[in-house]
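Input set for joint prediction.
Command: fold jointly, output tokens.
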Amino acid sequence: MSDPHPTDTTRAAAAHHDASHDAEHIARHLKGYFVVGGILIFFTALTVALSYVDFGSLKANWIIAMAVATFKVGLVAAIFMHLKGERWTIWQFLLFTLFFVAGLFLLTLLAWGDPIWGTHHTLH
Amino acid sequence: MQIPYETSARPDTGLYNAKLGIWLFLASEVMLFGGLFSGYLFLRLGAEDGYWPKGLLNVPVGAFNTAVLIASSVTIVLTWANLKMRKWKQAQRYLLATILCGAVFLIVKLTYEYPQKFQHFGAFINKNAAHEYEQYLGNDYLKAKGLPPRYEISGHLEALEVTFSGDKAQLTAAADRDGLEIVEPHAGEHTLKIVGKGDEQKQGHDKKGVSPAAAERIARVPGAKIEAFEVALDEVNAEPTNPASDRPHFLYKHPTEKIGLIHAKDVQWASSFAPKHSPYFAIYFTITGLHGAHVLAGVLVMTYFFVFGEQIYRKNPEHQANRIEVVGLFWHFVDLIWIFVFPIFYLL
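tokens >
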């Protein structure tokens, strides 16, 4: 089916060119998807195992568990969601989003750490 | 009307439109879950020692569900890959496997994990009365070991001890509605007992007991006052100084047959493991509930594509591949959220 809107810029032409190579390209990646799935399940087991190891403080256990989770999430995003090699437009969306999420967590930490003098509200 | 750029890239973005759309939607989803996760952090940081429960969730079941979601992420990406390679039959098989994984996840959550919580009973003991319950809480032992204290006694609610000064027919009717029966006080006792119907003749785990919700309904009968709870104690309260209970965890186990008597006057707060139990369960049910709704939505959309996809595939296989890619992106996102949910609720 031909697209009703002609694509004449070089960028779109390049994208189209990519698509024609898709089939062979993908066939080569099939095994990789299984491997990534296996790695993710292994790291799930690792998360459970590590939570039974005492790393000295709850904080240390948290940092380790979050590092493993972040690695897993990175794999899902990069491989399954094809962010690896994805267009810059989508990366821009995500960088914006990460910035605002960081802001959201910062608000929580501000409320918790109470670093702004004179804003502390207490019920006691 | 023909929707533009459903298969070819739009010149200015370099993407087909649906892909741009789903990523914008996922960005808003990141903000939605981000808000809830930061809410979790706020509640957790603010929780006093001993008031953030540990070990109330079933780790093997949670790990199993994590693995199911990861497997479904693999199968959805294989669905897409097979469509790209124009292998319709294989693609349909992988899509069906993905739908089934999503269904398994939901079934485990809704028929096993959640209902168990609503039958379990927990009572937080007033701090100034905690020493009277030392045999169940083991705080001296925990303190000596440098561990946070424990204020909750949990298990299976076996009986209520009630004083009553109202219309007896009302109490009998209320008990009846919940499958409970009233045992009149023996000589020298001043409270009557409310137990599961027929429990007097039963032993241990055969007893039906009193569901926490039924106990709340009994307490609302005019003239009824719950004086004490009889609880078949969870292992952690039956043997609080057993080092295995330092971190109560893992497999869901039946409560022991050891009965603990908890006086209502010493109880700060008691309920089932429902959202009102604690900030922990409130945020647990909020986040896992919203996540579950996403799983359900994914399953519905994929089922629709599974049933009605062939016509579009025959007309333009690339279009079907793109639809699966888009629902796949959503599905991976749902998996990604769970990768964080699992450790923060089940493990840490």
